[in-house]
Design brief:
Layout: E1 2-8, H1 14-25, E2 31-37, E3 46-48, E4 51-54, H2 58-64, E5 70-73, H3 80-85, E6 91-94, H4 104-109, E7 113-115, H5 122-137, H6 140-148, E8 170-174, H7 178-190, E9 193-197, E10 208-209, H8 212-218, E11 221-224, H9 238-243, E12 248-252, H10 264-270, E13 273-278, E14 298-300, H11 309-327, H12 338-344
Parallel strand pairs: 1-2, 1-5, 5-6, 6-7, 8-9, 8-11, 9-10, 11-12, 12-13, 13-14
Antiparallel strand pairs: 3-4
Length: 346
């Protein structure tokens, strides 16, 4: 009997993990599954002890993990202390792209394999990013609000107020990973010219790879899709923002830490920045007195780009398949600490 903890939340629910595990593993191995519900996204995620973007408490997790060999989760806080106090743990399946809620060094030292689910929400986040581009370019939230207030403004149709089109526009993608590769394909279908900057990416057909300063100079729309690391922290700072084409639109669906938020309200008010669409923020949620909330030409959403039901379904299924492979000694596909798997499955 293999003991498993389904530490789900209100997006990828514990019962969803359990159902996916039973469906993937079938009768091939008997499973003893217990469930733990974490409060995200009803309560925002955050730093918990020494891990990031986590939900719930370390003590609750340690309590639920006693005697457990495999844990599947999206947000549980696998801080260093967990590995000292849960000696039976052998595998953690984290159904997200960046498993920043796991202390990877501690997991590796304890001989625990950590797998993730890259690309599970790539389609959702890509479609959302393109939606934000359209919303910002055509001022959709502002005109919607005016209509609800009974205002029909003819001057939106004036030449100076009219929006642009994706067709024929140059769109610059900062980062060319799982999500932005799909964004590129969608934009190409719209007839946009897509350029990208990414020091590590494989080339993509029809997408010119350029340096960041050239991308900022040429693009009518700049969309951020890099991972947040010490190197990419505030990579778009005040100097970089000044390099953008006057009136260009900036979209961030990646992480707030990539962007210096401080100069943005002034750049919007002056029209230097033509539009700004944010799904992610330097502080989440942004404080009620944040000047961005009252700045012109902004489109703001509460970190929703990856939130489709298909994302949750895919996430649970990918991780259940990893568990199945682990139990069958086939080796997991998306191991983030391969040295542990190599030790265990030669
Ligand atoms: N808003 C949401 O709900 C949501 C959902 C999913 C992902 N995300 C975020 O979107 C971003 C992209 O996710 P992904 O799954 O495509 O990630 P990914 O790892 O597949 O791609 C990230 C890319 O960034 C590149 N990169 C690294 N350093 C760079 C630099 N200095 N300049 C330019 N590119 C650089 C990497 O080479 C990689 O190709 C991440 O920040 C992720 O956290 C947000």
């Amino acid at each position: 009997m293999t003991t498993i903890l389904s530490a789900g939340d209100h997006f990828v629910r514990p019962s969803q993990f359990t159902a996916a595990l039973k469906s993937a593993v079938g009768d091939s191995a008997p499973l003893d599954i217990t469930e733990l519900m974490l409060p995200w996204p009803i309560e925002p995620f955050g730093a918990v002890e020494n891990v990031r973007e986590a939900s719930g408490t370390v003590d609750d997790l340690i309590g639920a993990l006693q005697g457990v060999e495999i844990a599947v989760t999206q947000m549980a806080p696998f801080a260093a202390r967990v590995f000292e106090q849960c000696p039976d743990l052998r595998l953690i399946g984290v159904c997200r792209g960046g498993p920043v809620n796991v202390d990877l060094d501690a997991a590796t030292a304890a001989g625990v394999i950590v797998t993730n689910a890259p690309g599970r929400n790539a389609q959702a986040a890509a479609e959302f990013a393109v939606g934000l581009m359209l919303a910002a370019m055509r001022h959709l939230p502002a005109v919607h609000e005016e209509m609800r207030d009974g205002v029909w403004r003819g001057d939106h149709y004036t030449y100076e107020n009219a929006g642009g089109e994706l067709s024929g526009e140059t769109v610059g993608l900062v980062g060319l990973g799982s999500i932005s590769r799909i964004v590129a394909r969608i934009l190409q279908a719209f007839g946009a010219t897509v350029i990208a900057t990414d020091p590590f990416a494989e080339p993509l057909d029809g997408v010119e790879l350029v340096e960041l300063d050239e991308l900022l100079r040429r693009s009518g729309i700049v969309s951020l899709h890099a991972r947040l690391t010490p190197e990419t922290h505030q990579m778009i700072d005040a100097t970089r923002l000044e390099q953008m084409r006057p009136g260009a639109i900036l979209v961030n669906t990646a992480r707030g830490g990539l962007l210096d938020h401080e100069p943005l309200p002034d750049l919007l008010r002056s029209g230097r920045l033509g539009g700004l669409a944010l799904d992610v923020y330097d502080v989440e949620p942004p404080p009620a007195d944040s000047p961005l909330l009252s700045a012109p030409n902004v489109v703001l959403t509460p970190h929703l780009a990856g939130a489709t039901r298909m994302t949750a379904d895919r996430a649970a299924a990918i991780i259940a398949d990893e568990v199945k492979r682990f139990l069958a000694d086939q080796g997991c596909r998306y191991v983030v600490n391969p040295e542990v798997q190599e030790r265990l499955v030669p």
